[in-house]
Specification:
This protein has 65 residues and is α+β, with helices and mostly antiparallel strands. It contains 1 helix and 3 strands. The chain is globular, with a radius of gyration of 14 Å.
Length: 65
Amino acid sequence: MPRTKRVMALDAALHVICRGNNRQNVFHDDNDKLRYYNLLLELKQGNKIDILHYCLMDYHILELA
């Protein structure tokens, strides 16, 4: 049986985490981090969201939006 849909307030902050499987690296070099950063900026502007904090580490990503 699937989980019920989450109810999200329109003005709520979201804490987003992306982690590599078995702590494998998500980014292999600085170019990977730069590409992710540029995609993040495009999506931020295109979807009119605020990103309060972010941290790009080799094996995981943390964002507060």
